[in-house]
Amino acid sequence: MIAWREKTRAFAVHFLVTLLFTASAAALVFLIWFPDPFQQMLGGTQLFEVLVICDLGLGPLASFIIYSSKKSRRALLFDYAVVGSIQLAAFFYGLYVVANTRPVYVVFAVDQLEVVTAGDIDDADLAPAPEAYRKRPIWGPQLVGIQRAADPKERTKMLFSGLAGKDYPVLPAYYVPYEQNLPQIRQRASPVSEIEKRHPDAEPLISKAAAQLQIPVEKLVWLRVKHRKGFWTALLDPKTGRPVRWLPVDPD
Questions:
Q1: DSSP secondary-structure letter at 33?
Q2: Which partner from 80, 116, 143, 214 sits 20 to 30 angstroms from 1, CA to CA?
Q3: Residue 1 host element (H or E)
Q4: Mean pLDDT on 22-32
Q5: pTM of the full predicted structure?
Q6: Residues 107 and 96 in one domain
Q7: Distance between CA atoms of 228 and 119, rounded to whole angstroms?
Q8: 207 shares a domain with 161
Q9: Residue 230 shares a structural domain with residue 158
């Protein structure tokens, strides 16, 4: 006869343990690695969400199936070791994939901002970088600028590197504090009236942002934001040049 009560209890305990574990990881993913609006902008968290749902369902379901008070302690430990190993392997694989797709830098490059993910940067390219940029940021994306190569030979090398798909934004050796690029940022930023002319449907988003920021619309400027799924628009603070709002609008 099936002992439904004890199996249900095993399911519930396993579910609660899994829920606590995944909730902690979800806080890391959705609040720190992908702060608003990067989750919407980049996606990248879907695999983690699927794995969490599977973990919350299949792990406790396995407990429901394998648990029996008639089994020896050794047999139960073996069964749970197998189930737990599979669960943890799947979970950490999902977390690893998400960690590679998380945004680590937002780089000002020539005339736009580029969102660089952890997987875009090769490990070998971290060592020659300034000390501040030798590790991928863990606590959300960092805003940086670029100091382009001054030596003609190095510029030629970077030209070929860019043609091969490895340009300045993914090479931390050329990163500098964002503020160092402020003159170029102010020169390249455009008034929001341009966006409103190209995309009238964006006007409510801009007006709402201006009201929340308490900045007159006519003083707001913008830059295009390039990311792996397309383009957005960043509204910049006219004084600091830093992004203050991200709009899901392709400005082109």
A1: I
A2: 80
A3: none
A4: 87
A5: 0.84
A6: no
A7: 11
A8: no
A9: no
